[in-house]
Design brief:
Elements lengths: L1 H15 L15 E7 L7 E7 L14 E5 L6 E6 L4 E10 L18 E3 L12 H4 L1 E3 L3 E7 L4
């Protein structure tokens, strides 16, 4: 009888601590868009990611983006996470800010000198990709996107 009481006491204590596989109330997880950036040519600088909810400013005008994230580079890969995102249609633009000046460097013709990428690996024709080509639907929860950087 004493061992049964001990077992119930132990299970109650473990349940209070959230272990032992017993049902428990979980706090809701924030809606997250997790972006994995691949094919960076080196580990210099940082990666700048922007999340857009419309075509307004995509992908050139960062001030029009819904959210921004800067990320360090490790072994030619980087990660950006956007948390607390409501369900909807979005597009992500990314660039490799090799000199860490916070902007996409271009030549005299406006062609990027640093690597660029977008969700759906969308590419533009004689310019940046269109929002519709990069757009994806986010239903909430956790979404993982992979974007490959391209150098022109």
């Amino acid at each position: 009888m004493r061992s049964v009481r001990r077992l119930f006491s132990l299970l109650a204590a473990l349940s209070a601590l959230g272990v032992a596989g017993l049902p428990q109330t979980l706090s809701p997880q924030p809606n997250v868009i997790h972006v994995e950036i691949e094919r960076l040519r080196n580990d210099k600088g940082q990666v700048v990611c922007a999340l857009y909810s419309s075509s307004d400013g995509f992908p050139k005008r960062n001030e029009k983006a819904l959210a921004h994230v800067n990320s360090a580079i490790l072994d030619t890969h980087a990660l950006c996470e956007f948390s607390g995102i409501a369900p909807g249609t979005y597009a992500v633009s990314v660039f490799h800010d090799e000199n860490s000046n916070g902007k996409l460097d271009t030549n005299l013709l406006g062609i990027p000198r640093e690597g660029v990428g977008a969700s759906n690996d969308a590419k533009g024709h004689l310019g940046p990709p269109k929002f519709d080509a990069a757009a994806f639907h986010f239903s909430g929860g956790r979404m993982i996107l992979k974007i490959q950087i391209n150098y022109l």
